[in-house]
Design brief:
The N terminus is likely disordered. The chain contains five helices and 17 strands. By secondary structure, the chain is an alpha+beta fold. The strands form two sheets. It has a 15-stranded antiparallel sheet that branches. Strands 1-2 form a two-stranded antiparallel sheet.
Length: 295
């Protein structure tokens, strides 16, 4: 059904009559036949809301396995996530360090939860918990435009991981457990800021009949591009001490000394010879530099 309306238009002095045809639905009031722009507006907003809800649902339920590829790219293959479970927001995995030759060094099961509220301020806050490391306060990893901030960090490493830092240490086949703690660290494009302490417990070597060799303490102090390393002996048959630095441009440069405690010289002679040349009677140098590693 159509309704006709007429109007007069004056063109060039002549008056012409035009007709406007409008579709009319039978039995419906005239004002209801007009298409409401508000109705289309609400439809678009509804579709947008559903689309956003769908995207958020996909993100929240995204499997944790997706993180492995991202972590490998971010660390250039220096860290992988095995046995991943759960979701990106609430999940678990076993971080592992690839070895130079073959295989991995597993660090133990790790659980994480992503906090929602910090996302609205542009920060990604992750609460981390190790299964094998007792913690009074949960670890926090906060990723923002300023870098990666680590609070109450704890990490347990097998001493074999030290052999991956330098080919010179691989033949020694180090044993024991290294416990690392730090209250606050900031990793950014400018370098590392903060202090971390590490205790090497039940230290040993496959080349020594003396086991354990002792207990050692390391202090890592970050000041921008430079990370200072200090090694001291807490107790044991093998006495180690030294100082060094690590930087992106120069790598690891560490100089130390090793000697046997009184009465242990004969038992540790073979191990000391592998650690480095004898500088003075009973004292061997321990040098970890890019030049020494290239030899």
């Amino acid at each position: 059904m159509h309704s006709n309306s007429t109007s007069k238009v004056k063109q060039g002095g002549d008056e012409r009559t035009t007709k406007t045809v409008q579709s009319v639905r039978p039995g419906v009031r005239e004002e209801a036949n007009a298409v409401s722009p508000k109705r289309w507006g609400w439809s678009k907003r509804t579709l947008l809301i559903f689309a956003l809800a769908f995207i958020i649902t996909l993100i929240i339920t995204a499997p944790a396995t997706l993180l492995n590829g991202w972590v490998q790219r971010a660390t250039q293959g220096q860290l992988v996530l095995a046995n991943t479970g759960g979701t990106v927001w609430h999940g678990s995995a076993t971080p592992a360090l690839p070895q130079r030759e073959v295989g991995f060094i597993a660090l133990g099961p790790l659980h994480w939860d992503v906090a929602l509220l910090p996302l609205f301020s542009g920060k990604l806050k992750i609460i981390l918990r190790w299964d094998d490391v007792p913690q009074a306060t949960a670890m926090e990893a906060i990723l923002s435009s300023s870098g990666l901030e680590l609070n109450h960090a704890q990490l347990a490493l097998p001493a074999a991981a030290l052999g991956e830092l330098s080919p010179l240490l691989q033949p020694v086949q180090l044993q024991g457990q290294i416990q690392i703690q730090s209250e606050h660290l900031l990793v950014s494009s400018q370098g590392i800021e903060g202090v971390a302490n590490a205790d090497w417990l039940n230290a040993g070597s496959a080349l020594s009949a003396v086991n354990p060799l002792g207990k050692y303490h390391l202090t890592f102090t970050g000041s921008g591009e430079r990370l200072h390393i200090a090694l001291a002996t807490t107790s044991g048959a093998l006495i180690l001490d030294g100082q060094g630095d690590w930087s992106r441009s120069r790598g690891l440069e560490f100089h130390g000394k090793a000697r046997a405690a009184e009465g242990k010289q004969d038992n540790l002679a073979g191990l000391l010879a592998h650690l480095g040349p004898q500088q003075s009677p009973g004292v061997h140098t321990l040098t970890l530099t890019p030049q020494a590693m290239a030899r």
